[in-house]
Design goal:
CATH topology of one domain in chain C: Aldehyde Oxidoreductase, domain 4
Largest interface: A-C, 97 and 97 residues
Structural class of chain C: alpha+beta
Number of helices of chain B: 11
Order of helices and strands of chain B: EHEHEEEHHHHHEEHEEEEEEEHHH
CATH architecture of the largest domain in chain B: 2-Layer Sandwich
Helix content of chain B: 25-40%
Number of domains of chain B: 3
Radius of gyration of chain B: 19 Å
CATH class of the largest domain in chain B: Alpha Beta
Number of strands of chain C: 31
Strand order of the largest sheet of chain B: 4-5-10-6-7
Distance between the termini of chain C: 86 Å
Number of strands of chain B: 14
Structural class of chain B: alpha+beta
Shape of chain B: globular
CATH topology of the largest domain in chain B: Uridine Diphospho-n-acetylenolpyruvylglucosamine Reductase, domain 3
Radius of gyration of chain C: 28 Å
Helix content of chain C: 25-40%
Distance between the termini of chain B: 30 Å
CATH class of one domain in chain C: Alpha Beta
Chains: A alpha+beta (about 425), B alpha+beta (about 290), C alpha+beta (about 800)
Number of helices of chain C: 18
Strand content of chain C: 15-25%
Oligomer: heterotrimer
Strand order of the largest sheet of chain C: 3-7-1-14-11-12-13
Largest sheet of chain C: 7 strands, mixed
Chain lengths: ~425, ~290, ~800
């Protein structure tokens, strides 16, 4: 192993109570509680099934209440009281549930079982009147692939009935403070503060290996003329300028790029070809597609086509898209109507989510801003900052950060 | 599926947080309960340089009644509302919405403010709070401002937060007696993202109504001139007057081209209207009622 | 340690499981739970594209010693799962892709770091230069000339084409002819635990120890040995607790090969744990079938014949060991199901596409076949104006025909299929359902009743699999049985549990013969170093095969114990009998514990001619016929369908099932419940869709919907118990059956509910969106007809 590839230690101190025992350890801020428990404390009864909060296998008690360990970053549970399945060995309710689970064959492979027991225990405590429907609804945050839930539901029903028969009152949770369970008020900032990525090569963190950006840029994608987009939408808008002026503006690649939110040119464009990047943001998701676009214009028809392709830094997510435009006279004299037909295709991780509508909404908003900026540009005003969509500060940071990282990485390799 | 590296800080008071938010370099993401951000971090869809945990700040974990308005701090959780740990001015409407969000372990950490700022169109608060006429209070180092939730949510996962600004509280007006409320969502299974949401707040006495169609993969649709959905007039007989064709027209105008989607949304809206016409359930909400 | 023997622990006892306690206390030991000093984590760089030429993989200098690509794996052979069926085209699955990638998620590089997060950091820094090629994403289009090719040198995209024709032309003059196109969506098996592999070197044994979540450790050893060129003695495969399998863990993984190679290369323990995104987008799929099926029948519903063209999307590679053709070719042989008819033709294609390889998922082809057959039978019923059960009554194989060789020469061992149907109709109360249906629902929902019947060949052995010619042919199954010096029992089998409860049920089998308490019997399994060879846990075979082998080994032990006991009793062995854990002679008895103590601790008390094999036995077993047991079941579902939202509520679900002799009814019911839940997932929720570029469109459980507790009902189960004439105790394999019938029963119920609206849904999953779309389309069509 080369020394400079040794991971930078940005672990932070973390003190919490686990299964009644005070523990202090050091964990990377990005580590979630399930990995803290499993990898740092060897409490492997907390299982990971999806790491996105749906399967429930990692459910633990935080300050006595069930929570997803995979969605709780380590720092967020500083000072918290964590109970894992291992900590329920002597818990009387868990004991009743274990007996019932065994009797009713409520587990097969056992992988979901620790999370299921934690969730079931909460249900038993909280809902003493739950009928089968409510038990099923209440357990719906825990997936089991083996049992068909029959034994689980029977077991929980049995324990609830038994406790009701014994006259045990539910817990009300009234004494709980407000806010996320496990999150302690006013935890001193310095205890949880970790260094940012180094901003200079001479920073105090000499080996930012994990932050190293790809050294090689992803290759420019080929742009196929016969591209058939997976998603399309049309947009039309009217601008208070004559068609010829508008069409002329479409011929000015740099101007068009200025109007397209998130677009940056990286080379000098020719009339047929432009290189650049498109930075898009869907909520907290940011992606920067670097690539090329080819430009076709049909002056007599006042129409054209921009066909582009780009990929993110590692060549994982890629997009290909086209904008067909036609500029015609608007209804009022001296105005122009612009018809846009936008089509695009996404590939890679960003494409592999079942919610294409989110991208469609983004594309629609991009189109609307493009039109507004175009209008402004034609009126001689500077393109307005893109409200809500693309704060300049964020854009600059996103553009500069990889560069800094790269510089830092190079610096660190100096002897 | 582990997050990219980020730095993590947990300021203990609001002014420190706002200072840090304004000064930090790189990309900064605020985190409350982390129930929406967590998956995105784990999937590396989001790679912030700095995560600022806002749950240590007492001001964000308070609930208060100011006149006719319930003010909930950004870090109040769905479970806090579900369990009745915060006051209620909505006749249990908020608690019923809260109780059907995702799953109990998620509700124990997921927050009202986090959900609104994340602005997933399929999420419950975005649509329900618009229908209730709620406002958000935003704070920055330079001052505070308030926005109606419908102005705050600008698109799918997109909100009107300026740089350096954060959501500190949500202000929910009372649902006075005589006001009808209906909230129905459609999921393929319990706890799943909604595929359609209908939320209606109707005042039969005054003829006013807020009708919101949510889970449409963009900002919720607030039906302008809601009376058109009820044959031009809203009265005590609003449920019988609900006009599916008019609702379908609203969705068409909004650009929803898929007939199946429109049918489902209209159906859910119709059921929300029908629910509003029934007396509100008198018992405490069934937890995990879906 | 009392030797008091509860008589309720043997075959047939409804015994709670002994493995539960550790699993309920978080003390299960899954592959991700192993702790080894010096362990480092692996993340893979995977292809983001479905089909592309690899131009370059750029590795930053800083990571050169932590990243490994195909260029490093020069001495590793590709994975080859070849079928001996004539015409089968061979795919070579590279362990790391070298020239081309053929599916999203295909492995491109290994990244090694102290933690998984850091390994993923490295993976993110690697830049891919891929030249995208047109993706083959539709199996039907893939069969057409001019399609892009997954494996260019084949000339087409067909792994294998088969044809069965038995007197088919005789059906053509039937008065009823009904044709349908029926299909099933592509799925992921989604055990809650993903796959995982941890490899370390055991220098003392000079072995590479591969811990992998596997249903078939011995088969993994075969495959690893072939790929790595390492003799089997230097490979030890350990499969610890396995968090669900369902077929997903019955494979040799490229990841297994990579990790084994890597451990040799770097010399310290290495680990890869599959995450959920890898499972959903990059690793094996299942189920995607397409049928064009025609039924020929008499007006009374009697089937004259079935004609079918079946296509299965096998994905990019032939997975080891089951191969790419098992599923489609199996369609041809099992499509007739439990029915008897005289004419049959079935053509099948196993088609290569740019998707993940398919693996046999619980039920394998039976779920798709049952879906096609049961839906076409409902279409026949509708055409003939008959109730769906009438058509089935007319065509089921009758008990007086048993054992029965069906039209594809399947040998049904035993059973009474019509009785199963009759019982399920009674249980579901068809008259009441029909009345309710006619009355209508106040809430506007529509009620429907659906039926589905199947028979399931299980534990099929040498005679069947030698015909497939795949890398794995099951022979005799072996088991080891050893009495410990204090009278306890150790069993060893080469198959493995992934949740079935073998530690309990095989102890029950042993108890039946030896009388050793279940609590004092231990099962050793999941370790090639400690167990006899086995092809593993698949095909609902373990209780038949390993159960039979355990019984054989225990019988031999009992016999040896009897002889020792007789000597201790100073009696003639012929005058003694082995009974409930002791040897009973004419004048007294001696316990197994005393016999064990004698053999191990006081050999001086043994007879001079004692069997030197002692109290440790390995015995082999095969049923009298190895063509398989045939368990079967009739399922009936009542649903309420909301035609406006497509929501389906299962109001009632009844199963009449015949698994032969049940070793542990509690466990059997659990298998049926679990199978039903998976069947409901297939029927209503689960699907990985792909776009035209071969991109999988579900990468999380938010997109790939698994049924939760609120989506699954508690069914009513009624057992028939017709022993198999060929197996130990008459047991039949039942592990998969629960997942076979539900998609057909539920689709038939939904269609029964919506038939008055003119709706027929013939594709699974019958999702809410599909239901609403079909209802609206039917409404539009009706409106258009009225207008015309």
């Amino acid at each position: 192993m080369s020394t400079n590839a040794a991971p930078r230690d940005d672990r932070m101190p973390l003190a919490l109570t686990v299964n009644g025992r005070a523990v202090t350890l050091r964990a990377e801020p990005r580590m979630h509680l399930a990995d803290v428990l499993r990898e740092e404390l060897d409490l492997t009864g907390t299982h990971l099934g999806c790491e996105h909060g749906i399967c429930g296998a990692c459910t633990v008690l935080l300050d006595g209440e069930p929570a997803r360990a995979c969605l709780t970053v380590s720092g967020a549970c500083a000072g918290a009281d964590v109970t894992t399945i291992e900590g329920l060995d002597d818990d009387p309710i868990a004991g009743e549930l274990r007996a019932a689970f065994n009797r009713e064959h409520a587990l097969q492979c056992g992988y979901c079982t620790p999370g299921m027991l934690v969730a079931a225990r909460d249900l038993v405590l909280r809902l003493p009147d739950a009928d089968e429907r409510r038990i099923r609804a209440g357990l719906s945050g825990n997936l089991c692939r083996c049992t068909g839930y029959v034994g689980i539901v029977r077991a929980v029903r049995g324990v609830i009935a038994d406790r009701r028969a014994r006259g045990i009152a539910p817990t009300t949770g009234a004494q709980r403070g407000l806010g996320p369970v496990g999150a302690r008020l006013g935890t001193p900032a310095e205890a949880a503060r970790t260094p940012l990525r180094p901003v200079t090569a001479t920073g105090t963190n000499p080996a930012p290996e994990a932050a190293a950006a790809p050294e090689t840029a992803a290759p420019a994608l080929e742009i196929a003329d016969d591209f058939v987009p997976a998603h399309r939408f049309d947009q039309a808008f009217t601008v208070a300028h004559p068609p010829d002026a508008v069409f002329a503006l479409f011929g000015d690649v740099e101007a068009v790029a200025t109007c397209l939110p998130g677009a940056v040119l990286t080379g000098r464009p020719s009339p047929e070809m432009v290189e650049g990047a498109l930075q898009v943001r869907i909520g907290p998701i940011a992606a920067r597609f670097r690539g090329r676009a080819r430009i076709f214009r049909d002056a007599p028809a006042r129409s054209g086509r921009i066909l582009g392709a780009g990929s993110d830094a590692g060549g994982r997510s890629a997009t290909q898209g086209e904008i067909r435009y036609r500029v015609g006279p608007g209804e009022a004299p001296g105005t122009a109507k612009v018809d846009l037909a936008v089509g695009y295709t996404l590939k890679g991780p960003l494409a592999q989510f079942g919610r294409p509508g989110l991208v469609r909404d983004l594309a629609g908003r991009l189109g609307a801003e493009f039109a507004a900026n175009l209008e402004a540009r034609l009126s001689g005003a500077p393109a307005p900052p893109a409200a809500g969509l693309n704060p300049l500060r964020w854009l600059l940071a996103a553009l500069v950060a990889p560069l800094r990282r790269r510089l830092a990485a190079r610096g660190a390799r100096r002897p | 599926m582990k997050p990219a590296r980020f730095a993590y800080e947990r300021p203990a008071d609001l002014s420190a947080l706002l200072d840090r938010l304004a000064s930090a370099e790189g990309s900064v993401k605020l985190m409350a309960g982390g129930q929406s951000l967590g998956p995105m971090l784990n999937l590396r869809l989001v790679e912030p340089d700095l995560v600022l945990d806002i749950t240590g700040i007492p001001e964000l974990r308070r609930a208060a009644i100011e006149g006719d308005t319930l003010v909930l701090g950004a870090c109040v959780t769905h479970a806090d509302i579900e369990d009745g740990r915060v006051p209620d001015l909505t006749g249990g409407a908020l608690a019923r919405v809260a109780a059907a969000i995702a799953y109990r372990p998620v509700r124990n950490r997921g927050t009202l403010g986090g959900s609104l700022v994340h602005a997933d169109p399929a999420a419950d608060w975005v649509t329900s709070l618009i229908a209730l006429g709620a406002e958000v209070e935003l704070a920055a180092r330079t001052g505070r401002r308030r926005l109606p939730v419908d102005a705050f949510v600008t698109g799918a996962l997109d909100v009107a937060l300026a740089p350096g600004e954060m959501l500190v509280s949500v202000r929910i007006p009372a649902l006075p007696p005589g006001t009808a409320w209906g909230y129905v969502k459609h999921c393929a299974k319990i706890g799943e993202f909604a595929h359609a949401i209908g939320a209606v707040r109707i005042e039969p006495a005054t003829g006013r109504a807020r009708v919101v169609i949510g889970a449409i993969e963009r900002a919720p649709l607030v039906v302008a001139e809601a009376a058109r959905l009820f044959g031009g007039r809203i009265g005590p007989d609003f449920a019988e007057r609900f006009d599916r064709a008019a609702a379908d027209g609203v969705l068409r105008e909004a650009g929803m081209t898929d007939a199946v989607d429109r049918h489902v949304h209209v159906t859910i809206l119709a059921r929300a209207v029908a629910q509003a016409a029934r007396p509100a359930p008198s018992t405490r909400p069934v937890s995990e009622a879906a | 340690m009392s030797d008091a023997i509860p008589l309720t622990e043997g075959v047939g006892a409804r015994l709670p499981r002994k493995e539960d306690d550790r699993l309920m206390r978080g003390r299960g030991q899954y592959v991700g739970d192993l702790r080894l000093p010096g362990l480092q984590d692996v993340a893979f760089v995977r292809s983001p594209l479905a089909h592309a030429r690899i131009r370059a993989i750029h590795v930053p200098d800083a990571y050169r010693d932590r990243v490994f690509t195909a260029a490093d794996l020069t001495d590793v052979q590709p994975i080859r799962a070849v079928s001996g069926l004539p015409g089968f085209k061979v795919s070579e699955q590279p362990v790391l892709a070298r020239d081309k990638v053929r599916q999203v998620g295909e492995l491109l590089a290994i990244c090694l770091a102290p933690t998984r997060a850091q390994a993923e950091d490295i993976a993110a820094a690697i830049v891919l230069d891929l030249e995208e090629l047109p993706a083959v994403h539709c199996m039907l289009a893939a069969r057409e000339p001019g399609s892009a090719l997954v494996h260019e040198h084949w000339g087409d995209n067909v792994f294998l084409e088969t044809l069965v024709d038995v007197n088919f032309s005789a059906a053509l003059d039937a008065p009823i002819k009904v044709s349908r196109t029926i299909s099933t969506g592509r799925q992921c098996m989604a055990p809650i635990e993903g796959r995982g592999t941890v490899v370390h070197l055991d220098h003392r044994m000079d072995q590479l120890v591969v811990h992998t979540a596997s249903q078939m450790p011995h088969i993994v050893r075969n495959g690893l040995s072939e790929c790595l060129g390492i003799e089997q003695g230097r490979l030890r495969i350990v499969s610890p607790d396995v968090g669900g399998g369902f077929g997903y863990k019955a494979i040799l993984l490229p990841e297994d090969v990579c990790l084994a190679w890597l451990a040799l290369r770097v010399g310290h323990p290495v680990r890869w744990l599959e995450d959920r995104r890898e499972h959903l987008t990059a690793n094996a799929n299942c189920r995607e079938h397409h049928y064009r099926i025609t039924a020929y029948a008499e007006r009374d519903g009697t089937l004259r014949g079935i004609d079918c063209e079946a296509t299965v999307d096998s994905g990019a590679y032939s997975a080891y060991p089951f191969s790419a053709c098992l599923e489609a070719a199996q369609v041809a042989s099992i499509l007739p199901g439990p029915y008897d008819f005289p004419a049959y033709r079935c053509r099948t294609w196993s088609v290569a596409t740019n998707k993940c390889p398919i693996l046999p998922y619980r039920g394998v082809a039976r779920t798709g076949v049952c879906f096609a057959m049961e839906l076409i039978l409902d279409a026949v019923a509708a055409e003939a104006g008959l109730e769906p059960w009438t058509v089935r009554e007319r065509n089921l194989v009758r008990p007086d025909q048993m054992p029965f060789d069906n039209i594809t020469a399947k040998h049904f061992d035993s059973g009474d299929y019509p009785q199963a149907l009759a019982r399920v109709l009674k249980a579901i109360d068809v008259d009441a359902v029909r009345k309710r249906q006619q009355a209508g629902e106040a809430d506007g929902r529509r009620i429907g009743l659906g039926l589905s019947i199947y028979c399931e060949q299980a534990a099929h052995g040498t005679s069947v699999y030698s015909g497939w010619g795949i890398p794995m042919v099951p022979g005799h199954e072996q088991a080891g049985a050893r009495l410990t010096p204090d009278g306890g029992l150790e069993l060893r089998i080469g198959a493995h549990s992934h949740g079935q409860g073998l530690e309990t049920t095989l102890a029950q089998v042993a108890h039946e013969i030896l009388g050793v308490p279940v609590a004092r019997t231990r099962l050793v399994h999941g370790d090639t170093a400690m167990t006899p060879y086995s092809t593993g846990s698949w095909g609902s075979r373990v209780m038949v095969m390993a159960g039979g082998a355990v019984a054989a080994a225990c019988r031999e032990l009992a016999d040896r114990a009897l002889r020792i006991g007789a000597h201790l009793l100073q009696a003639d062995p012929a005058a003694c009998r082995f009974e409930a854990g002791r040897v009973v002679g004419p004048s007294g008895d001696v316990t197994l514990a005393q016999i064990a103590h004698t053999w191990y601790r006081r050999p001086q008390d043994l007879a001079l001619d004692v069997n030197p094999g002692g109290l440790e036995v390995t015995a082999g077993y095969k049923p009298q016929r190895d063509s398989g047991t045939f368990s079967y079941a009739a399922h009936a579902a009542v649903v309420a369908v909301d035609p406006d939202l497509g929501a389906v509520e299962i109001l009632d679900y009844c199963i009449v099932e015949d698994g032969g002799t049940l070793v542990n009814p509690l466990v059997v019911d659990g298998q049926i419940y679990g199978g039903l839940a998976q069947g409901i997932g297939t029927a209503l929720y689960e699907e990985v869709r792909f776009d035209a570029r071969g991109q999988p469109l579900a990468s999380t459980f938010a997109d790939y919907l698994l049924p939760g507790p609120a989506e699954v009902p508690e069914p009513r189960i009624d057992h028939m118990a017709t022993p198999s004439p060929y197996t130990q105790f008459g047991v039949k394999g039942i592990g998969e059956g629960g997942a076979i019938a539900p998609p057909a029963a539920l689709a038939n119920a939904i269609n029964d509910a919506l038939r008055p609206l003119g709706v027929a849904l013939l594709h699974s999953p019958v999702s809410q969106h599909r239901i609403v779309a079909a209802v609206l389309a039917a409404r539009d069509a009706a409106t258009a007809r009225e207008a015309a």
